[in-house]
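Supplementary Methods S3. Complex input for the zinc ion-bound model.
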Amino acid sequence: MKKRTLSLTIAALTLCLTAGFATACDEDPHEHIWDGGTVTKEATCTEKGEKTYNCEDCGEIRTEKIDALGHDWGAGVEVSAPTYTHDGEALATCSRCGETQTVVIEKLSYTADAVVKSGESIQAAVDSAQTGDIIEVEAGTYAEQLMLDKSVTIIGKGEVVIAGPADYADLVAVEKLATDSKGYIALVAVTDGASVIVENVKISADPAKASAVSQITHYNYFVGVAAIDASVTLNSVTVKGITFEDHLMGMQNGIALYAAAEGENRTVTVRYSTFESFNKAAAVIRAGISMFVFEDNTVTGMGEQGLIAQNGIQIHCAASIARNVIQQLVYAPATANGYEHGSYAMLVYTADEGAVTVSDNAVKACDNGVYVNVPGSTELTGNTYTDMYEGGVNEEVAEA
Ligand SMILES: [Zn+2]
Ligand SMILES: [Zn+2]
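Predicted complex, serialized as structure tokens:
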């Protein structure tokens, strides 16, 4: 008799365990009849929610977690453009909670139409190229000037240096435009309405050789890259050494990038590039250019020196100047000459309303920051100025 009671108890316990709910088993074990449940805590992008169910029979309650939703990023907005040799960047924003994240945009793929090997001539490859061709240049130093009068893309693979000819007296000048006062002698010249892309290349002049140029600079600008009535895009390009070893003082010449135009829709775009050891300015972009984009670059002047009032970039057209580092533009002659500490990171001379945006640039160790010639022409946002000359100005807008 005693034995039988025990086996019944075990049977009841087994039933309860099978159902999984011990609490309702006291008198009347049953299968709960759960309702549809109610969300008692909404899930968010990052936190779990909760749903509560009631048993319609006994009033028992149970809860279930609802998975966190995860962010809803969408496509994102491009911040920096991808190029053939450099990833871009987009900023994605969650449509639910507003959280943001940076997303890499993969670099563009390409197939080379021609390959230039070390010891060969880039100019020869350009001369025999079709419009639109992509010319890949293998690592090496190329002792030549490039005169680019057709639309091609030149992409360096490894370290590619364009150094100009052995004797800079052999550099060929580009005839001046009617709107300009001088012609141009450039290591790389884009002309004749061509639209050229140059990527991952160092354009490196030898200041010791520039004396050959300085004999004729009275009639010509000495320039690293010139776009004369043409469009140019420089991505991951270094321009350096556009200066004169034997003739620095007061020479308003030696410009790393110079562009001027008479025709319509000429644009200059520069990304991920470096400008250093120029004489007068890293870039001078004249009014005939329809758009100048200068983003994610580094401009480094000669630091404190008393020979010339260098400037970073000088803009006469519509422009977007963003996320650059511009530094070390300091003019400090031994004796005050009225122009002392007259170097500027940026000079904006455009007259069109809202034509120029200057945003999120880091200006460091310069005499002055940004000078804007015409009020209303330029939107200045998010720029920072550190270690600037005490008597200088960070952002100066001329009075109307
Ligand atoms: Zn129940
Ligand atoms: Zn979210």
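The chain has three helices and 33 strands. The first helix runs from residue 2 to 19.
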